Structures are given as C-alpha cells and as structure tokens.
Amino acid sequence: MTELELRLVELGRVLDVPETPDLAGPVLARIGPRPARRVPRWALAAALVVVAALAATLAIPSARSAFLRFLHIGGEEIAVVDELPRITPQLDLTIALCDRITLDEARRGAGFRLRELDEAPDAVYRSDRGTIWFLYGSPARVRLLVAQTKGGFDPYVMVKKVATRQTHVRVVKVNGANGAFISGRPHFVMLLDEQGYPIDETTRLARNVLVWASSGVAYRLEGDFALAEALELARALR
Amino acid sequence: VVEGRPPDEPALVERAKRGDERAYGELVRMYQGIAFRTAYLLTGSAAEAEDAAQTGFVKAWNAFGRFRRGAPFKPWLLQIVANEARNRRRSAGRRADLALRAAAERPTGDAAPSPEGAVLRQEQRAELLAALNQLDEKDREVLACRYFLELSEEEAAEVLGVRRGTVKSRTARALARLREEVAT
C-alpha cells in the first residue's frame, strides 16, 4: 500500500460515523414467511423472467396498467403494457451512459470483439454493466447510438424496455439473427434492481430501436430511422 | 470495521435461504454494522442510512431466491444497500459529498499524542476529506469501498456492480486524482 492508501485507511477508521442502530428487530418485523421452493434451475430462470416482467409493470405505483406480453431478445426484455408508467426519464444522456472512454480503450477493454461502422463515433462510453456505447452527434443532439453488451442474464439487475400497444414492436431478422424493431410511440429503457424497481438514473426515453443478439453479444441501435435504414446500419456494423 | 467471512455464515445463509427468519436475524446482526456504515458513507445522513440499510435487508430477504448458493453474502447484501442509499440521496437531489468528519482523537495511554500533534493530524484528515470531495462520484465511491469499508477488489466490484478490472483501474485513477488534489 502507498502512503496515500494508508492515510485513507487510517482516515476511514477514525471517521465519525454514528453508532449503528439495531436493525434486526425492525427488519424481522417487516419480513414475512418465505416458503421454501424446490424447482429445476431452468424453471426458476424462466419464472424469474416472467416475474421480473410483471414486476416492471406492477412495481411502479402509477403503472397499474395491464401487462400484455413480453419479448426476450439477447439480454433485453421488452415488456408491452397498455399504459406507460409516469416516471421522469433521465434526459442527461451522459449520466446514463457512464464513463467516457476512448475508442481504443473500448476495443481493449470490452471483453469481446466490438463491431464498428466505417464512420468513427463522436464519443465512446462504457456503462457500469460493461455496455460499450458509440455516440454519433452530441449528447444534446444524438444522431445515432450503438450499444454492444456481452450477453448473459444479470441476476440482479435487468435491462428492461417498457412499451405500449401504440409502440410498434416488430420481430425481424438481423443478419440472420432474431431481433426486434421498436418504433412509434416512445418507450422507456430502464435498469431494474433486484426487486424489479427502476433504478432512477438509468431511466430514459429511447427513440426507434433495433435490437438483436449474435454470438453472445446483444446489439442495440437507437436513432430516428426507419426499419430499412436500421437494418442497413446493422449490416454495416462489422 | 474489517469483517471477514464468519465461519458460521454459510450455514446461516443456507437456513435463511430456506426461509428461517431466526437465522436471518443472526445475519442481520452480523452485517448491520457494515451495512449501516456503507449507507452512511453514501447518504451522509444517519436517518437515511438507517432506512436504506433496513430496507436493503428486507429486499435481500425477499430476493434470496436469486442469491447464488456458496457465494459470499456480504458483497451481495452491500450492493442492495448501496443501491437503496444512492436512490435516497438522488431523490433528495443532493450531491454525493462524503459529509463526514474525523472523530476527535482520543489519547491511548502511553502513546498519548501531544495537543499540537493531534491538531495537525486533524487538519491533515480534514484536508484529505476535502480533497476526496473534489473527486467525482464514481471515484469517491470506489475509494470509499476500498479504503473506508476495506472491501477487497472482488467485493467492491460486486457492491459497485462493475468488473474487478474496472475497480482496479478506477481505483488507480481516483488515487492519482486524489494525489493531485492533495498537492494543490
């Protein structure tokens, strides 16, 4: 440890933190019986997907709308509800996208082979969950967003899209892989915590979106484009 | 503050996972100190920290079905508590300053410090805290996890929801920035 690190540890040990209150009593008063379940792993995983999708709709107080259906594409789920929750979206894109990094850092640190367009992005970001974002334009005037996420179902936090019936969700083939094109009325992109509640700072309005998954990586294009143009961009992402 | 993995934790976790509330009560007592401290570092408010830690424990109980068998309980719990604390702080619209101060130095018998030495150390600590508050939120959080909560890189990664490599690089970057702040 360096001297600075030792000073930090020493500081941590003398910080004036209030005495810990007793939490066991209040916690035990708030929890109820939780029956033990023995179900096969695959069944549990499938059930979690459904429960999480329902929770996304029902856990938000103003979203008492009916859950209609959901699609599961790569690491993303698209929950279709009859009314969008009344939540304040995160409009500061740079907060949602997290760390600004260079393209070289993204290539080296992504943990998978990044696909790129011929045109270099204007900015590159890496979110806490490892998603690499290419931003074309500026955060205030986005021309195109390209997101690439190494696949895998995060057991604690899930990416969720919530759309309405007025939002068109069309299942498409993208470079031979299953995908979906979401267009029309705005929809939300949100991260859910382990209880299915949205994590505030990640909720934002998305525009037309093409999502697909290929070779364990989930891809997402966001922009004001029609399906044909989105598919063209997907093909150009190499 | 340093809390290793107590030998009876796996058995308590297993019982709690099966729905044993008494076992869970033991786990709460075992980890309430570090859970409260984590929440306090993130909120700077004793009342909000208590509320966040308590709700975190309740959510962890409800989410036990998703807890991976054999995994350490502490970082999983702290991630939930930290999320709760951040959400409270953000909904209150506060900047995430480490609203902390060092406790007054207490003489420790033979090696009782001189009054001048104690004042100097207090000033140095206050200066270090002020420098910490000049860093951005991510830098402060990773330093708080590694040095104030004394979590390992793996534990900090789980609490912050990032990869271990990210904790390593972010810590190095944050220390470099802190060094600059202290020097100015």
Low-confidence stretches of chain A: 35-70, 81-91, 152-160, 191-204
Assembly type of the shown chains? heterodimer
- Side by side, the strands of the main sheet of chain A go 3-4-5-6-13-12-9-8
Largest sheet of chain A: 8 strands, antiparallel
What's the average pLDDT of chain B? Answer: 83
Q: Element order, helices and strands of chain B?
A: HHHHHHHH
- How many E-type strands of chain A? 13
Q: Label the overall shape of chain A.
A: extended
Overall shape of chain B: it is elongated
Please give the share of residues in helix of chain A.
Answer: 10-25%
Short summary of the structure?
The complex is a heterodimer of chains A (238) and B (184). Chain A has 238 residues and is an alpha+beta fold. Chain A is 24% helix and 34% strand.
What would the keywords be for this entry?
heterodimer, A: 238 residues, alpha+beta, 8-stranded antiparallel sheet, 5-stranded mixed sheet, 6 helices, 34% strand, extended, B: 184 residues, mainly alpha, 8 helices, elongated
Describe the fold and architecture.
The complex is a heterodimer of chains A (238) and B (184). Chain A is an alpha+beta fold and 238 residues long. Helix content of chain A is 24%, strand content 34%. Chain A has 6 helices and 13 strands. Chain A has helices at residues 3-13, 24-30, 41-58, 93-97, 103-109, 227-236; strands at residues 67-73, 76-81, 99-101, 123-126, 132-137, 142-150, 158-163, 167-174, 177-184, 187-192, 204-206, 208-214, 217-223. In chain A, the strands form 2 sheets. In chain A, strands 3-4-5-6-13-12-9-8 form an 8-stranded antiparallel β-sheet. Chain A has a 5-stranded mixed β-sheet with strand order 1-2-7-10-11, covered by helices on one side. In chain B, α4 crosses α7. With 184 residues, chain B is mainly alpha-helical.
Give the helices and strands, then pairings.
The complex is a heterodimer of chains A (238) and B (184).
Chain A: H1 3-13, H2 24-30, H3 41-58, E1 67-73, E2 76-81, H4 93-97, E3 99-101, H5 103-109, E4 123-126, E5 132-137, E6 142-150, E7 158-163, E8 167-174, E9 177-184, E10 187-192, E11 204-206, E12 208-214, E13 217-223, H6 227-236
Parallel strand pairs in A: 2-7
Antiparallel strand pairs in A: 1-2, 3-4, 4-5, 5-6, 6-13, 7-10, 8-9, 9-12, 10-11, 12-13
Chain B: H1 9-17, H2 21-43, H3 46-62, H4 73-91, H5 115-132, H6 137-148, H7 153-160, H8 164-183
Helix pairs in contact in B: 1-2, 2-3, 2-4, 3-4, 4-7, 6-7, 6-8, 7-8
